[in-house]
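Objective 1.3, modelling of assemblies. Example input:
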Amino acid sequence: MNSAIALVLLLCFLLPHLVLSAPVGSPAKPPPAFTEAAEHAKTLVEKILKDIPAAHAAAITTEGLTLDPSAQTTNLQMMMTSLGIPPAPVLKPPSESFTLDVWVSCMSAGGRLYQGLLGVLSDRLSGLSNLHADLRDLLTHIAKMKEVAQLGEAADQNHSLDLASRLHGNYEVQVAAHLTLTQLRSFCHDLMRSLRASAAYRLPSPTHSAAGTC
Amino acid sequence: MDRLTEGEDCVLRQPLADESLSSFWVCCSCCVTHRNAVKLNFNVSWLCYGFSIMISTWVSVIVMLVAFVNGARNEDDIQPCAEVQTSSSVVPLGSPVTASCVIRDGCHLVIGQAVHIEWRLGDHSLPGSQVANESGRFSEVVIPSFNHTREFLTCCVRASPVQVVGGVEIRAGYPPEAPQNLSCQTNLTTPETLTCSWDPGQQETHLRTKYTLHIKIRDSNENHTYELLPGVHRYTIPRSGFVLFSDMEIYVKAVNELGEAASAPIILEPISAAKFDPPTIQKVQVVPKKYGCLKLSWSLSQQQVWMRDYRFNLEVQLKTADNSQRSEQPIMVSRVRPTRSVDQCRLLHGTQYLVQIRLRYQQGPWSEWSSSRSGVTLESAPTGRLDSWMKASGDHMHKQLNIHLFWKPSKQFRANAQNVSYIVSVKKVPGEKGKLCSTKGNYCTFKLPGKAKKVYLSAINAAGKSLPTEVRIYLPKASSVISDVTVLPHDDRSLLVQWRSLVSSSLTGFVVEWRPLLETDLSLTQFEITDRNQTQFLTTGSFEPYKPYGISVYPRFKDGIGLPQTVNAYSRQKAPSMVPEIQINKIWPSHIELTWEEMPLDQRNGIIQNYKIFYWDKKGPIKVVNADPEERRVVLKDLNAVSPYKAFMMVSTFGGSLNGSTIHFEIEAFDAIAVVMIVTVSGVGLSLLIIFIVITCFSNQQRLKGQFWPAVPDPANSSIRRWTSESTQDSHLSWDNEEPDPMYLSHLSFLDLPVKLSKEDDDPWLSNAEDTSDLGESICGSPFICGYSGSNSDSVPYATVIFSGPCNSPTPKEAHVYLRSESTQPLLETEESFSPKCYHNVARNRMPSDQCFFGPSHDCVPEKGADPGILWDDFPFLRALALNDTQND
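Predicted structure (tokens):
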């Protein structure tokens, strides 16, 4: 236990030097605050995954719109295009090729995307506020990860959301909510996988923390 | 700015046709200059403003506006007479308040007269603290301590009556205290909320105090402020207002007109303040090869399973399934993940435990307890000794003792298994040989082998057997040293048994034994062994209320068990469930005996204190008779025979009373049985008397015959001497014993009758021999009563007087018949004479004028044809009687 604390303190002390002064060395274990933020983020993703079915059941009343993929009989690809709901950012576990800052930026971008979508839909439907708040919490912790790791600002995909203007009728609202929740669930699954993988991740040298594109 | 007096007031005049516009402007500016003073506020300024921007407005419009303004000014001339000002309209309670009052010159109340200003606070005037200036139109008052929370301070002018010219409201209170005890709790069930509450402080501010809840999320630097309703000291923040895993700074600010105060801020992570759902125990298992250990697998509720990677603090509550042992305090287990099981050791072996857990995250509130799951620890051989109690009965001289052996685990005994049985053996090492009994219960009955002085008791389970407990066989003794056993209910589940005992050197202690009396199962018998110095014992166990228990105290001697003292007891009593039916046992003319059956034990619900009989009749008051509980009978006395009675019985225990049904009864005037008895006895007595008389008659036939049917001497075959000697003696005796015959002759005369005997066949009286058989009686004792002096002649005729009624009848209804006797025998010449007691002629009243002689009365026909004189001459004796009758009449 004492050795772990000592290691954590050492990492806290050395991390700024690793990032700022770009020392040459092997990849280091992430600082506890980063790990803690990632742990909180993972917990929140689990919570979102647990809340999505309840939110779906509360918000969507149209028959045929179900979270069960096997029961999905309607192809809503065209509706998704017409409603202007963008696809979720591709999220991979951080690696040499998918750098930490890109990873975090992608998580942040996805979170913001669905927070925005849920924000629009929450005005029209009830039962989505918990998810909206959970996504806000998730973004808070992603931002904290970014802050702790002193990651550069990656070029986020700026999804211009004009969903509100396209929600002409209730059916569009229902389909948009269904598509949002479905994609959010998929995105959260990706988040869970990548966050679990990040536990074994070692911080790269600062030279690898150059800003990427999500 | 100078104050305007009424004389200096700007008067807007209606412009004349020849007046220039400039002159109007002068006036207008005048009005503007003094606008505030004279309060020609809105209309005037609006008018001036209109004229300044529209110079070329038509004159007619101006005229109309001026006219309007003029009218408005007249309305504003009604001004308050005074202006009251205070240092502050809201002050701390108890602080000084200063106020001033200025009377306007234009106030019509003060024109041309002295002004005297008074101050009033509410309904009370404020004496002495006013300061007036020279003109008397300004006054100031200082209230040293304003002790009202809200009051009106008014300025008055002394007129008739006193006029209020101005006033102001003053409120007082305290600045708010800082809110205390701010705490927040997160609710993770939908909808997720964070509820904060606090105490506003003890002191009432008396002022409207507004509270605001301030939240700052540190990670996102978000700030939220929630305004709260007055009087509400809690607020529920929606999910959008807090972050689960971020520290938040929270405080409450209280603000009123006298100040503000904020609570000490708290910093919390909402997830740390969450009250989680009760966890679920998945299973409770034994730990292999570890005695006294159980492994608990648990999980969060399904709604909170997303927290499964976090560490929680657990509390484990363990209790044995039979509730005999319970961990006094829950066992704390810190920082465990739901994915990891928890081991609990130091438990009893082979014992079933019920396990409950609860959790909290960090220092948050504890969840509720989970539902319990059971688990059994590994078994081992029983350990410890057993306490035993033995009762022996039977003939020990013939070595046939029946032994009732009871046992119970001592404090040190551990069965170490769920299934344990017990073996009683005469051998120390239990085996089939010498085994007296084997049972899973807590007692055993067996016949003691003749030579055995002790037996051995062992506990056995699947894992082994305990060391044997030696039980010495004590023989019963006839000595008793215990007295005054009393039982007091201590509480619902225990009884206090107290007793006294004589001092005995061989006394080693006592055994208190108790058992439910309504149950016959001996396994319910419990006991406790005490030492010799103890004279009371608190029995504990499952005492059911209203159920009887038999409690016995046995003395233990060195060489045996003495005689017990036994009492019945209840842990709690109530009124009986039933009342026995009253039965009438006996009825007497003035009292009655009532009886009833004994109450069943299960219906008593307590110790019967008494039976009370309430009885009453229509008129009288209700009477009460107490009956001895042991006798179950009562006699109601002094009952009225003519009135029907009602009665009922009340049965009382120490816990209440119950009334029975009412019966009706009536006391009969005559007792039928008594009457039958009396009649029977009387009949028997009478029969005996009759039999006695009959026997007497038969035994004394001759005597009676002589008494009632005296022998009439046959004149033909008798002489007077003989008759007299035989018959008169009896008559004489009879005369002594009976009432004297009331029929007497008043006079007797001797007659000289010619000796002339008629033939018997011709004389009708001979045919009626039975009538004449009582000749002596018919004469009514004439031989003794009448003054018969005897006769000198040998032949004296005599007559017989026949009465139709009895001789002693007071008033003979039939006429007397005189018969002439043909006898010529001398009339009792030899009889001794004695004087009669009295004489009177009882037949005189009915003496007919016509006499009948020598014939029955019904044949009595006066013989008118005969010559009476001849007849009387023939019977001088009878004539003398007739003469005497006549004289008496």
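The mean pLDDT of chain A is 79.
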